[in-house]
Design brief:
Number of strands: 0
Shape: elongated
Order of helices and strands: HHH
Distance between the termini: 49 Å
Radius of gyration: 22 Å
């Protein structure tokens, strides 16, 4: 066991088992899109976590890009137009 896992836990904290970590990594791997890592049980936890971080970064970038596009769209249309109403309904 690594020295990080053998440290005393603070009061009220529960210990997570290796089996639980394996199950959580497996669940996390199932949430990732299939194009990143291969869907096999042989994928290391490190690879799953790296791919997850990469995927979350790409989602953040996509949200930023869509936000920018929405801001540009809103700045080019009349606030009282039907298009503006549609955009507002999508935001809410």
């Amino acid at each position: 066991m690594s020295s990080r896992r053998s440290r005393p836990l603070s009061s009220g904290a529960s210990r997570i088992t290796d089996d639980q970590i394996i199950q959580l990594i497996s669940k996390l791997q199932q949430l990732l899109p299939g194009t990143g890592i291969q869907r096999s049980n042989k994928s290391s936890a490190s690879k799953v976590l790296q791919e997850t971080c990469s995927y979350v970064r790409s989602l953040h970038q996509e949200v930023d890009d869509l936000s920018d596009r929405l801001s540009q769209l809103l700045s080019t249309i009349d606030a009282n137009s039907p298009e503006a109403s549609i955009v507002r309904s999508l935001i809410i």
